[in-house]
Design a protein that fits this description.
There is one protein chain. Helix content is 39%, strand content 22%. It has 305 residues and is α/β, with parallel strands linked by helices. The chain has 2 domains: 121 residues, 3-Layer(aba) Sandwich (D-Maltodextrin-Binding Protein, domain 2); 134 residues, D-Maltodextrin-Binding Protein, domain 2, CATH 3.40.190.10. Strands 1, 2, 3, 4, 6, 7, 8, 9, 12 and 13 form a 10-stranded mixed beta sheet that branches. It has a 3-stranded mixed beta sheet with strand order 5-10-11. It starts with a helix and ends in a 19-residue tail after the last strand. Keywords: Signal. InterPro entries: PBP_domain (IPR024370), Phosphate_ABC_transporter (IPR050811). This is Phosphate ABC transporter substrate-binding protein. It comes from Flavobacterium luteum.
């Protein structure tokens, strides 16, 4: 009987060592600049991340796949170990951070840009101004709101969560609120229906895919007035950078890999000079503005002959 338990014990030890070796081999095949990994991406941030990945892969021997989901689905994937890298418009909550710490993983959060929520309307709607208080009144089911209806990409999206936080509510009301699956579907719906106001990530308006341009041409991006403010501001790069636009938000890459893998390398890349130039070119606001070198010559020579 003792010999039986010894054999069982040896079996489990060998199994544990084998599993560890497989894990180490997997990590060994991935460095900060090489290998293959998957990143969970908030659907409203898809354009900027696709641009970043395209350049990153052209410079290094790496393959980064993206899984585009709603914000809640991205968080769930992190907690379920389906993925260890995520792009979000919020940091992890204390409870979410504690979850990883209990697993001996310390999430690394990197702020890399600032974008905004855009409110859009059909071009047939002559009014291109809207007060944030009107939106809050509408989602709080107050009768004095002038809004006919709000259109969201997804009830579990970052845009829905953002507006709920602004209004101090947990969930969006059922009446007058419509939701689809993606920002592109919101753009299509608003371009075809007068009187509705769409709530989308501004990145999807600044960098639309070619197929969406015809719909973009049929909408207006509204100027928004903050609570207790008299001025209206559009979500331009300058207004977001100066803090004038009231629906601005920060963007983060959250790395829960627990080792020196592509999560660390990609975070360093998008927060570095090249990544920040891509952010700037996309119409969003970089965390650090790329430097520009000026060469001053004492003499001007005429090279033309």
């Amino acid at each position: 009987m003792k010999m039986y338990f010894k054999i069982i014990g040896v079996f489990f030890i060998l199994f544990f060592v084998s599993c560890n070796q497989k894990s180490e081999t997997k990590n060994a095949n991935e460095t900060i600049l090489t290998g293959n990994t998957t990143i969970e991406v908030d659907e409203t941030l898809k354009p900027i991340i696709e641009s970043q990945i395209q350049v990153f892969e052209s410079l290094y021997k790496a393959k980064i796949n993206i899984a585009v989901k709603s914000e809640k689905e991205v968080i769930q994937s992190l907690l379920n170990n389906s993925s260890r890298i995520a792009i979000l418009s919020r940091v992890l909550t204390k409870q979410e951070t504690t979850f990883f710490e209990n697993k001996k993983l310390i999430p690394k959060t990197t702020l890399f840009a600032k974008d905004a929520i855009a409110l859009i309307a059909n071009k047939n709607n002559k009014d291109t101004l809207i007060a944030l208080q009107e939106v809050i009144d509408f989602v709080q089911n107050k009768k004095q709101s002038k809004i006919k209806g709000l259109v969201f990409d997804n009830p579990n999206s970052s845009t829905a969560r953002f507006i709920c936080e602004k209004a101090g509510i947990k969930n969006l009301p059922e009446n007058g609120v419509f939701s689809f699956k993606t920002n592109d579907e919101v753009l299509k719906y608003v371009s075809q229906n007068n009187g509705m106001i769409g709530v989308v990530g501004v990145n999807c308006v600044f960098e639309p895919i070619p197929e969406m341009q015809s719909y973009i041409d049929k909408i207006n991006v509204l100027e928004v007035k903050d609570i207790n403010n008299i001025n209206y501001y559009s979500p331009t790069q300058n207004n977001i950078a100066e803090g004038k636009y009231p629906l601005a938000r920060d963007l983060y890459i959250i790395n829960c890999q627990g080792y020196s893998g592509l999560g660390m390398g990609f975070a360093s890349f998008i927060a570095g000079d090249i990544g920040q130039r891509i952010v700037l070119k996309s119409g969003l606001v970089p965390v650090t503005f790329p430097s520009r070198k000026l060469y001053i010559r004492k003499e001007i020579s005429n090279d033309k002959k």
